[in-house]
Write a structure and sequence with these properties.
about 210 residues, Fumarate Reductase Cytochrome B subunit, about 70% helix
Length: about 210
């Protein structure tokens, strides 16, 4: 049955590519690192809005669960709905949060916060030293999370459940308890409008740098 819409699948693969490029250019100290970071920021803004206004399986309300639900799932005592299971939802939430922190710290290092006069008393050498340390720490943490994510994909593959194929085709194995037409999918036009809005925000940020 169809589980993932086209916008979510496009986001997933574009995020993977842009994060790889941003990480490589950042750790190597060369290449258009800031450009990759800004492109990633646009994607994140798009994903955040899609998590609110998008398709059912893409919404935060579908995959953000309490620690109790996550624990019950890991113990095999919780049957997840189509889409991200509680553990997968935790990974998605963590990755999004860390990527947002990374983009914000990157904007701070690029001088964007200098536009806010009320922050003048905070933006000193100590502040930027802390932000630089956070940026590096989060970068290394993200690499570790990606490795953990890939390991989970391999485990599911060994269990005859291809998460990669599902993120390409949008389809997962049919669950008898769920009707094929039971899921709600938002239109691609809405996704495009939200993407243009997210891109506009990033363009405004670039113009202020």
């Amino acid at each position: 049955m169809k589980v993932w819409d086209l916008p979510t699948r496009l986001y997933h693969w574009m995020q993977a590519v842009l994060f790889t490029l941003a990480a490589m250019s950042g750790f190597n100290g060369g290449g258009p690192h800031i450009t990759f970071g800004l492109a990633l920021l646009s994607l994140l803004l798009w994903r955040i809005t899609w998590g609110i206004f998008g398709s059912e399986t893409s919404r935060f309300s579908q995959f953000v669960h309490s620690p109790r639900v996550i624990l019950l799932y890991l113990m095999g005592k919780y049957s997840p709905k189509p889409g991200h299971n509680p553990a997968g939802g935790l990974m998605v939430s963590t990755l999004l949060t860390m990527l947002i922190v990374q983009c914000l710290s990157g904007l701070a290092l690029a001088g964007w916060f200098d536009n806010f006069s009320f922050l003048e008393g905070v933006l000193d050498d100590t502040f930027y030293s802390i932000v630089e340390s956070v940026h590096l720490l989060v970068a290394n943490t993200l690499v570790g999370l990606v490795a953990l994510h890939l390991a989970a994909i391999l485990i599911y593959k060994l269990r005859k459940k291809s998460l990669v194929l599902a993120m390409i085709t949008g389809k997962q194995g049919y669950q008898a308890s769920v009707k094929p037409d039971a899921l709600e999918f938002a239109s691609n036009l809405k996704a495009l409008v939200l993407f243009v809005a997210a891109l506009s925000v990033t363009i405004a940020i670039v113009a202020s740098l």
